[in-house]
Write a structure and sequence with these properties.
Distance between the termini: 58 Å
CATH architecture of the largest domain: 3-Layer(aba) Sandwich
Strand order of the largest sheet: 2-8-7-6-5
Oligomer: single chain
Order of helices and strands: HEHHEHEHEHEHEHHEEHHHEHHEEHEHEE
Number of helices: 16
CATH class of the largest domain: Alpha Beta
Largest sheet: 5 strands, mixed
Length: 461
Amino acid sequence: MPLERRSWAEPFRIKMVESIRLTTRAQRERAIEEAGYNTFLLRSADVYIDLLTDSGTSAMSDRQWSAMMMGDEAYAGSASFYRFEEAVRRTYGYKQVIPTHQGRGAEHILSRCLIKEGDVIPGNMYFTTTRLHQELAGGRFTDVIIDEAHDPASPHPFKGNIDLDKLKRVLVENPRRVPYVCVGATVNMAGGQPISLENLRAVYALCQRYGVLVMLDATRIAENAYFIQQREAGQAGRKIAQIVLELCGCSDGCTMSAKKDPLANIGGFLAVNSKELADAACNLLVAYEGLQTYGGMAGRDMEAVAVGIDESVQDDHIRARVGQVEYLGEKLRGWGVPIVMPIGGHGIFLDARAFLPHVPQEQYPAQALAAAIYLDSGVRSMERGAVSAGRDPVTGEERMPKLELVRLTIPRRVYTQAHMDVTAESVYCVFEERKQIQGLRMTYEPKLLRFFQARFSECSV
């Protein structure tokens, strides 16, 4: 009898391992209390399976480790920079490459170069550091994503798409006040949701008519290309690398955290086509990051990024990467756990409002849920809801987003299917006991990006 479905396996074998330990419930109770119920403040030694982020947490390949031995640590004119530059140009197509220490360094430089006081920057949902750099430069972010993106249950295949009518309205109402449109591929805060190639083409054409730049957040662009390959009409026969190159061709530049798709532990870049913009960026780079031929990275890091860029667009790699995420998501769905649908590229996003309907958003249900999962099993996740949204810089009032999510972020090439099983079982056990979870109150609130350092305590019953 023929098999209806064949199992898939990772396109690599394990050559080195790192020991991890499972702590006791009592140890975890002490750890989360000391961390103020903020998973960012936990020590990694107290974490069993670390799904806090996929940023800088990937396992590098033998080719990447070998390339690091070739690192040229010259202060100026490093040979490693030119290999790095060539990989960026070949894979993404941009002419000018400005290295930075990581993605937020590129966001800072871009914002300082393009944004003036009073400017408006439309985008397909905010990202925390991106929006902060835009605000610090005097700008104001405005969301032009499609409405379906704010509905965790919507099955729309491209919830990262920009609503063209919303975007046009912003362009018309803010003449000469829109320096660029910020397009995430994929959209992190919506649950790792992709933008379609058709939509990006239309956005680029509209912006060209109004003389406005399109800048990609290309941090997870290979994952976005995979969803285009799988879901968009006419794209099934194309290679991931081809789709990535065309996506970038529908923009004027990008910021990149090389700690995600490019599989490195540190690094990033700003890439643009304009020589004038590149010159302005390099001038600021020297002040804030480093010389234009290293920009905050060591030569060995640039070598690792260059190889990682090549590996990130290989079809076998990205299929297995997203496949592991889908495996975890389908297991949770089968048990009735509410998650953002469709399943995204870099992690599973639990719908905390549906998970904990008895906890009001003012008591940070996503933060409480992330703490509860850690207490159950030592699995570390992170909040993506009201705490991450922060406060309005003008009114000082808390932003209360429609999406109140917990992100289980899967590092690339790090965990096995058994780790995903353990994670799924923990989330299910917490789901079964969800009525016992209490809300939280904030006891310490930093001024900027509070989700990194805020502290909480349980609300009294």
